[in-house]
Write a structure and sequence with these properties.
The complex is a heterodimer of chains A (690) and B (166). Helix content of chain A is 27%, strand content 18%. Chain A has 690 residues and is α/β, with parallel strands linked by helices. Chain A starts with a strand and ends in an 11-residue tail after the last helix. The longest helix of chain B is centred in the N-terminal third of the chain and has 12 residues. Classes of the chains: A alpha/beta (690), B alpha+beta (166).
Chain lengths: 690, 166
């Protein structure tokens, strides 16, 4: 532990670690130094001059955001000179800034507005005409309004450093300076919108939210993003039961301020015009709207018939539904429908990892571990496309801690740019490619290995054996595709494994087998689209629960309109095995959550007396699923809860594992119904050109 | 893009003189050397510089738009820069600039029809002791009165002037 440095700020004594900036030291003793360009975690700019402070024995005012604390330093932020400097800076920033706050998207949550309120002057001496430039649209997502820009360069830095994209630059000089996109008049980038959220003023605005509503008119609900498996917290702004925007400007959740385009702008799918709002039943070959009563009665009758005849029933679960729904569905199938024909679309071989690591403590990497590990190895995955948060974490680790990154992939990935070693292999050659890195990895103090679907089955055990052979602590992440892919596996939506990867005596049919089996009396598909590009399966009755009339739903005998992740409460488990709370954000008329549907059916069929809520099922999970004994109060308070694999966890020997290889701008079937997401489809791969 | 032997040699020296990992610091001199030969920073030049230094197009655009001595369009054969900053202005720099405009029939950033001369009003060029001062390509001219200016223009037009060809 290095010796602490003692300094005085506004008469208050404070001790800080060497290298601490004065602006941070001041925060520790409750002294707020105003700033625009300073942003924790990004490089220093010293551009806005808002944080000027007086320091004893220094002739001029100093910028607190670039000044490193030294022993005995005496800093004052409350002198008339500092107040005058701040007032002058605000006046200067306002010379060309338009006073269009009444219509500006940022009005009410604008840092310049707040600064002018606190530190500015009521009158401006500026009489000249303001320099005006028309606003520009750079992409369906990003708009730029030059006159509002105060040139703090936060957007340039977050794109360069945080995202590793570098799509924004500063052109021209002095009063004519402006932010410019990388393709002349438009952007070609991740379209993540980080630049928009980090903008302290209304210079960068989003295509989804601009001129739609006012910040104070919305309810802001923090929930978990419905798309990829990284489990980012997104705070959705809701106005009149409509999601207006997503952001995470308060930097809460395991993702801090990070969100990709899906977390920020893909939250429009609940309001898509094609959304189902009434049950559909097939009559004379056509699907027609029906009441819930009629549709549920029909389903009940078919299930009763199948049970009475002892005919097999198949169930295909979802990568998007909550842990409670997945658990309840497997209970419904196994306990009440007496079937083990249960599966979901598997995108990563989690059971194989569970079995390889069974009984070992602390071998699953958390999202945080990716930021703190000394070395990270990425095997067979394009993280920037498929797991943008994990990519962000690793990049931040490299920037802040000089972590060494190793890559084994079949093609170029963003991590190459800062990797200590990148190994290119032929598809299928990933495990062999690792061997080239063995010596370098042995020299590392610790390591996190992330692997995609290229490593599955027996290869997972081989990968873990390789990790063991290095003689250093190794943690793992098995990459999966969707919001609750990990939860679906953990809850036992598998033909040969129950909750917590407990082996079953009589394994059931896999997803593929169910789709081919002519004997199935009922095939029940929940929130999945396995029939895309396929014929109707030979099962006698096809029941589908989904948000939209998907390719699978079109072939169904009964379609039940389900609520999306943004319309329900519950928990989901992210790719790193962290459980987080999903919160109901909006209500959509006519739909029911999958848990409601299961529960209503169970009541009708006499399996239970009263419908259950998600909290009841969560308690049941804690008792029944090994590794899921979580702190519920902490979970409810929003803290991610880590799970672990049980000591008897077993590998699944049956079924197919395949990642959908989504890009930043696709997300299976759900992605097709996110309007903005489908408007900005940059060609994957083009992002790697300079 | 391929440049003359002489320019290529200058560029090679430039790159050799950078410490490893600091290639991008060669950006400004490289742009100037290439501009001397090509006459302007064309989109092809930007692309070429990106390739040679391994920087992004954005990095080059930032620099080109910042420095006024880097041009997007070719200047005249003789590029005349007249200082109107304080010291020169006090001894007739502004009048000299106005005279030059009338004489050449062009304004700030203009090029004569024959492509011989171009004119630019610039800030201090570091010749305050000898104002009014102006620069023709890389050559300095001191104590420039309208008469001196006219004489110089005639000389240059006859190609008898001492200004180096770019």
């Amino acid at each position: 532990m290095p010796e602490l440095i003692r300094l005085t700020i506004d008469g208050r004594s404070v001790e800080v670690e060497p290298g601490t900036l004065v602006i941070e030291a001041a925060r520790r003793v409750g002294v707020k130094i105003p700033s625009f360009c300073y942003y924790e975690g990004l490089s220093l700019a010293g551009a806005c001059r808002m944080c000027l402070v007086e320091v004893e024995k220094m002739p001029k005012l100093q910028t607190a955001c670039t000044l490193v604390a030294t022993p005995g330093m005496v800093v004052r932020t409350d002198t008339p000179q500092v107040a005058e400097a701040r007032r002058a800076m605000v006046e200067f920033l306002l010379t060309n800034h338009p006073l269009d706050c009444p219509v500006c998207d940022k009005g009410g949550e604008c840092e310049l507005q707040d600064m002018a309120f606190r530190y500015g002057a009521a009158e401006s001496r500026y009489l000249e005409a303001k320099h005006h430039v028309p606003e520009q649209q750079w992409s369906p997502v990003v708009f730029y309004d030059r006159p509002r820009c105060i040139l703090c360069y936060r957007c340039v830095r977050v794109c360069d450093e945080g995202m590793g994209v570098g799509a924004l630059g500063v052109v021209n000089r002095g009063g004519r300076s402006e932010i410019a996109p990388n393709r002349g008049d438009h952007l070609e980038c991740d379209e993540c919108g980080a630049c928009i959220d980090i903008c302290p003023v209304g210079a960068l605005t989003s295509g989804m939210y601009r001129y739609q509503t006012r910040p104070w008119e919305m309810n802001h609900v923090g929930t978990i993003c419905a798309f990829c498996a990284d489990g980012c917290k997104t705070t959705l702004g809701v106005y009149h039961d409509r999601i207006m925007r997503g952001n995470n400007r308060d930097r809460s959740g395991l993702n801090g301020e990070f969100l990709c385009i899906k977390g920020r702008y893909a939250a429009d799918f609940p309001h898509h015009p094609a959304r189902l709002s009434r049950p559909l039943v097939r009559q004379d070959g056509e699907l027609r709207p029906a009441s819930w009563l009629e549709a549920l009665s029909l389903v009940e009758a078919r299930l009763r018939e199948a049970l009475a005849a002892g005919s097999p029933i198949g169930v295909i679960g979802s990568n998007h539904t909550t842990n409670e729904e997945n658990y309840f569905l497997q209970k419904f199938a196994r306990q009440w429908l007496k079937t083990n024909h249960l599966d979901h679309q598997r995108t990563g071989d989690v059971p194989a990892l569970a079995s390889a690591l069974a009984g070992r403590e602390g071998t699953l990497a958390s999202t945080e571990d990716l930021y703190t590990a000394r070395a990270v190895l990425v095997v067979g995955a394009d993280l920037a496309q498929q797991h943008p948060l994990l990519s962000w974490q690793i990049r931040a680790n490299w920037r802040h801690h000089r972590a060494r990154i190793y890559v084994v992939t079949t093609g170029p990935v963003r991590e190459d740019r800062y990797a200590a070693r990148s190994v290119r292999v032929e598809p299928g050659g990933e495990l062999e490619g690792l061997l080239a890195l063995a010596e370098a990895l042995r020299a590392e103090p610790d390591l996190v290995i992330l692997f995609g679907d290229a490593i599955q089955g027996e290869d997972v055990a081989r990968l873990v054996a390789f990790g063991d052979s290095l003689g250093i602590p190794v943690k793992y992440v098995c990459l999966v595709d969707y919001a609750n892919s990990r939860g679906a596996a953990d809850m036992g939506l598998l033909p040969d494994l129950g909750p917590g990867y407990q082996p079953l005596e009589r394994p059931g049919m896999t997803l593929e087998e169910m789709l081919e089996c002519p004997d199935l009396a009922v095939l029940w598909v929940v929130g999945a689209n396995p029939l895309i590009g396929r014929q109707r399966p030979p099962s006698r009755f096809l029941l589908v629960q989904d948000l939209f009339l998907t390719e699978t739903a079109r072939l169904a005998d009964v379609v039940l309109p389900a609520a999306s992740a943004y319309e329900k409460d519950g928990t989901v488990t992210n790719v790193c095995g962290e459980v987080q709370r999903l919160r109901k954000v909006v209500a959509v008329a006519g739909v029911k959550t999958d848990l409601e549907i299961f529960s209503l059916l169970a009541c009708r069929m006499g399996f239970q007396k009263d419908p259950v809520g998600w909290e009841t099922v969560l308690r049941e999970i804690a008792d029944a699923v090994p590794g899921y004994r979580l702190s519920v109060p902490a979970l409810l308070a929003g803290a991610p809860q880590r799970t672990h694999f049980a000591s008897q966890a077993s590998s699944s020997r049956r079924g197919k594992v395949r990642s959908a290889r989504d890009t930043l701008f696709t997300s299976g079937t759900l992605g097709r119904f996110a309007t903005i997401l489908s408007q900005v489809r940059e060609a994957p791969g083009a992002l790697y050109r300079g | 893009m391929k440049f003359s032997e002489q320019t290529e040699a200058r560029l090679a020296r430039l790159i050799e003189s950078r410490p490893p990992g600091h290639l991008r610091s060669a950006l400004v001199p490289m742009l100037l050397f290439i501009q001397d030969e090509v006459g302007a920073i064309t989109p092809e030049v930007v692309e070429e510089v990106c390739q040679r230094l391994g920087v992004s197009r954005r990095d080059v655009e930032e620099v080109v738009s910042y420095y006024s001595m880097l041009r997007r369009k070719p200047a005249g054969r003789y590029h005349i820069q007249i200082c109107t900053n304080i010291s020169c202005m006090l001894v007739g720099g502004a009048e000299l600039f106005e005279h030059a405009c009338r004489k050449l029939g062009i304004g700030h950033h203009g090029v004569t029809e024959d492509g011989m001369f171009s004119l630019e009003e610039v800030e201090c060029i570091g010749a305050c002791c000898w104002g009014p001062a102006m620069q023709v390509n890389y050559d300095y001219h001191h104590h420039v009165t309208p008469e001196v200016f006219d004489r110089l223009i005639e000389q240059l037009r006859d190609n008898g002037g001492k200004a180096r060809e770019r």
